[in-house]
Amino acid sequence: MSIHDGTYQLHEGAYGEFKFYQKIAKESGGPVLDLATGGGRICITLAKAGITCVGMDASPHSLVIAKKAVAELPQELRGKASFIEGDMCDFNFPGRFPLIINAFESFWFILRMAAIKDLGINEYEWWLGNEQQKDNEVFMLIYQKAESCIRSIMRSLAPRGKFIIDGPISHLLFQEEKKEVAHAWWLDMADTYKFSVRFADYNDLNKSVFDLNALHRPDVVIGQKI
Ligand SMILES: C[S@@+](CC[C@H](N)C(=O)[O-])C[C@H]1O[C@@H](n2cnc3c(N)ncnc32)[C@H](O)[C@@H]1O
């Protein structure tokens, strides 16, 4: 079995995401920065479309998989995808990207897992709902980490550059009451870090969506540096 089967072809085309990222990346002109790239699923997809992409991930193991995938690209496309180890909550590039993405609904999920770990909470107890008394602490830390990520993104975006975060709310929101808070948080970040923000339909970026009642939706948050 090739690594393509298990890694970056995983969930290929969920909500049409390969086509979605290729289109938006082409419009940006590249290069694209792919945060938490994992096995390079989206980065490799962009390279195949001729777009230069840098994938960043905190896990050396994921990066080994991503680099193997690059080696399987046709020779002339191999220079299009590169990978570096780094923390999406604290990065600084000398260059500026016209597009920064975070795919596969991983934003809040990653930050929540990191917050739980930092606070020394047992993950399984958390999922079982046995750590609810620590909720406030967890959510404060999630939002701190998220802000740090947004600050890093804004540092690395080109003027008028865009960022796309897939699944803006859903992974926080196994807790219903957090939806409104997360929505307000985005508006606050946009005001503080000077970007415009839209919640858009995956398949029609001109269509705004913000459905607080849906848990899993094909939607994205789009920020554009003002
Ligand atoms: C669900 S996978 C990513 C999937 C990938 N974006 C895609 O669309 O296929 C989540 C990834 O986030 C990475 N990750 C977790 N915390 C991170 C952090 N602070 N900075 C960068 N990457 C992180 C993990 O190592 C893992 O590879």
TrEMBL record:
Residues 32-108 form the Methyltransferase domain. It comes from the Bacteria. This is Methyltransferase domain-containing protein. It comes from Candidatus Sungbacteria bacterium RIFCSPHIGHO2_01_FULL_47_32.
